Amino acid sequence: MASLAQHVAGLACPPLSGASRRRPAAPRRPPSALVCGTYALTKDERERERMRQLFDEASERCRTAPMEGVAFSPEDLDTAVETTDIDTDIGSLIKGTIFMTTSNGAYVDIQSKSTAFLPLDEACLLDIGNVEEVGIRPGLVEEFMIIDENPGDETLILSLQAIQQDIAWERCRQLQAEDVVVTGKVISGNKGGVVALVEGLKAFVPFSQVSSKSTAEELLGKELPLKFVEVDEEQGRLVLSNRKAMADSQAQLGIGSVVLGTVESLKPYGAFIDIGGINGLLHVSQISHDRVADISTVLQPGDTLKVMILSHDRERGRVSLSTKKLEPTPGDMIRNPKLVFEKADEMAQIFRQRIAQAEAMARADMLRFQPESGLTLSSEGILGPLSSDTPSEDSGEELTNE
Length: 402
Hints:
alpha+beta, 5-stranded mixed β-barrel, 12 helices
């Protein structure tokens, strides 16, 4: 052991320094370059790298040469917008597309640099809670009228109501020229009369032109037959008459004609029927050939039925009605009212023929005492000229004398 230690001690070994004792450090790889150069990228990584390079290049171009590759300058763009812009004068019409609605109205794309807005109160002739009630939704294409401009942000204020008003006034002028009867729903009233909606416009009906003695409260919500008295768009005056319309309706109420009515109310003695704005009485004795002990078992307020005009007192405004005359067989109005209404026109025609024959017979009786009239009555009850082969009263006397 001693000799081994001496031998080892006698070996000549170079001194060991701190640097010589460490293992050489592995060279550091750059974060990306060495990875890209050393390791193969996946397909997605290569695509991301390409897109990054393109973005960097585009960003650099936008910073250093923003107009590179553009065929016109910003000044050219402003000029093009000015020369192709639409007419935005107040009162002009413009087509646009709804692209957003709010509780206050709707925003409209009018293909212009200007913003356009349709307020809620300009969306329709009627009073509405939101624009969607009248079908105004994103995507709707309509023609609007420019009625104003907001000076704060130069937003154009549009209107559909203005266009609808023009159409409604023109329609009212046409209806007045044709002298037709229209229907108006009463929406309010005052001491002088009632206000009714006609063609979407608010029309005034003075109480002096209302056929009934009803108050404004009683007429509220009812529909009245009306005729035009005054149509003045410039002054905003639209005046109508219920009396004129009723006079026309009453002129058409011939004895024996069949009309459609609605039961207004029931009384112990009969039912009041509304026939186009005229109240007629269907007496309990004229409901059916069979006795009706309780009217409510046959009719109810709101029922719609066909009735025949029995009489019409125009001076007193009274109309007598009947369903009894329309029964194919006695008691049908009680047992099968549907059959009565189906056969109403047919039964009324039979009734009118009987009336005509009765009137002809009455006239013939009078003519017997007036042979100079030259008329006679056929076996069918029809009046006609006296023929040469028909013996007169004189000729009959001559034959008798012979």
